[in-house]
Design a protein that fits this description.
Length: about 475
């Protein structure tokens, strides 16, 4: 048996049955990381205490102690989520030496569940990007083809999960950063409803859009991580007090009567034909199993990218104002006065994409342009949200491709920001509307994974899970072309 190919829930069972020790599993994982991650570069940092942590788990199991929900399961964490006494660099020079003195709420919860932190994963700088190429510490590669990108910005987490270098990971999603890399790396990624998971301890990109979520090898693992990290948190006023179900209760292979909406705007020109075909094949499979598939329309879809890049950059420019060389993080050595200190710190500390976003965001918020861009974008955001509300009167879930393309080559879009931004065309509107959505594997095209996205109404993650689980079970045989 190849332990590393197990899912988190399978590993958990083996550990509890003492068929494998936690130390053994962690050592296998570290050896695989040592071997494969030199070229993949999914990790920026490995937890030096993880073997000690594993020993404690083994002791607990041996003594018959009460085991946590994820006892002994090694999880990887995106480097914009704070863990006490580990670096949180956001893949930026600006935070290269930043060690947060506290745990994010999701980390507190993971630790309480008995999960082990294996390390921190690579990402686009401050989560700005769709390829992980904007990391200040070098790009991550796609486990299916190392000449290609793993997607982004949670590319390190997705690549680690896809390459069996972790048993589950956390990512963050502002405009697609969990779902698109999950699609590119052949794994499952869930962006929860805005407010479902606490953002406390997530280094902010765009606070009205950011959400933390799981990236896992299968749908059951995603449910289990959601069971651990969800819930209202006093430290995040935007988190919501709504009952959390046991998400694994919805792993039912039965979707008779489920109304599935297929938005015409998401299958129009611009999408790579083989990706579209994989998604359509999966839809036909669930139709055969009794789902009722209907064509729907989300008429404001085409404004999504423009609206997203106005609002996300506006919020980012404001959030990133705190990195000024005074309070924490990088400070230039090259200055004669305070003004120069600010300027050179930010000039040297941020990479090109971060600077582009700060400039763009500052511009759309500046006097004279605020109404024309920021306010207008907010109004269109309301229309995009309304499109979904209308659509969910006719459909229980909406299915679309996750990304318009297969994993692209390193360097292919790096110098062309507009091309890169268009990668978010099917994911960003979901964030603008605050909805939950999951990407799951939809088969392969010439050995590269394609992803399918399932969107549900606010706080109806269980509808996504039912649909995803059914598709996952039907595709077990695999479709490829
Ligand atoms: N690719 C999108 C962007 O560059 C989304 C990033 C994200 O979700 N963090 O903004």
């Amino acid at each position: 048996m190849d332990i590393l190919k197990l899912t988190a829930w399978q590993l958990k069972e083996l550990l509890a049955k003492k068929e494998i020790s936690c130390v053994e599993a962690v050592k296998l994982l570290l050896a695989a990381i040592e071997k494969k991650d030199k070229s993949l570069h999914s990790y920026l940092y490995l937890n030096p205490g993880v073997i000690e942590d594993a020993k404690k788990v083994d002791k607990k199991i041996a003594s018959g102690g009460r085991l946590g929900y994820l006892e002994g399961v090694p999880v990887a964490v995106k480097d914009n989520i704070c863990i006490k006494n580990m670096p949180a660099t956001c893949a930026s020079r600006m935070l290269e030496n930043f060690y947060p003195p506290y745990d994010a709420t999701v980390i507190e919860k993971l630790k309480q569940s008995g999960a082990l932190i294996i390390g921190k994963t690579n990402m686009d700088e401050f989560a700005f990007g769709s390829s992980t190429e904007s990391s200040a510490f070098g790009p991550t590669r796609n486990p299916f083809d190392e000449m290609r990108v793993p997607g982004g910005s949670s590319g390190g987490s997705a690549s680690a999960a896809g390459a069996n270098l972790c048993f589950g990971a956390l990512g963050s999603d502002t405009g697609g950063s969990i779902r698109q890399p999950a699609a590119f790396c052949g794994v499952v990624g869930l962006k929860p409803t805005y407010g479902r998971v606490s953002r406390y301890g997530l280094i902010a990109f765009a606070s009205s859009l950011d959400q933390i979520g799981p990236i896992t090898k299968d749908v059951r693992d995603a449910c289990m991580l959601m069971n651990v990290i969800s819930g209202r948190d006093e430290k995040d006023s935007t988190s919501v007090e709504i009952k959390i179900p046991d998400y694994t209760d919805f792993l039912k292979d039965d979707i008779k009567g489920l109304r599935v909406g297929i938005p015409e705007e998401y299958f129009a020109s611009g999408i790579e034909e083989p990706v579209k075909n994989r998604v359509m094949e999966a839809i036909r499979l669930i139709e055969k199993q009794g789902a009722e598939v209907k064509r729907i329309s989300l008429p404001h879809t085409k404004y999504g990218i423009a609206v997203y890049y106005i609002l996300a950059t506006a919020e980012a420019s404001s959030n990133l104002a705190r990195f000024d060389g005074v309070k924490y993080g990088f400070r230039t050595g090259n200055y004669k006065n305070l003004r120069e200190m600010y300027m050179n710190t930010r000039g040297e500390g941020f990479g090109a994409e971060a600077k582009r976003r700060i400039i763009l965001g500052t511009y759309v918020l500046s006097s004279g342009y605020y109404d024309a861009y920021y306010i207008k974008a907010q109004k269109v955001r309301a229309l995009i949200r309304k499109d979904f509300t209308e659509a969910f009167k006719e459909a229980d879930v909406i299915i679309t491709p996750t990304a318009p393309e297969l994993p692209f080559k390193l360097g292919e879009k790096k110098e062309d920001p507009i091309k890169m931004y268009l990668s978010d065309i099917f994911t960003a509107n979901v964030n603008l509307a605050g909805l939950p959505a999951m990407s799951i594997p939809a088969g392969f095209v010439s050995s590269l994974p394609a992803g399918l996205q399932i969107i549900a109404p606010h706080f109806r993650e269980e509808k996504i899970i039912e649909t995803a689980y059914t598709i996952e079970q039907s595709l077990k045989g695999g479709i490829s072309g």
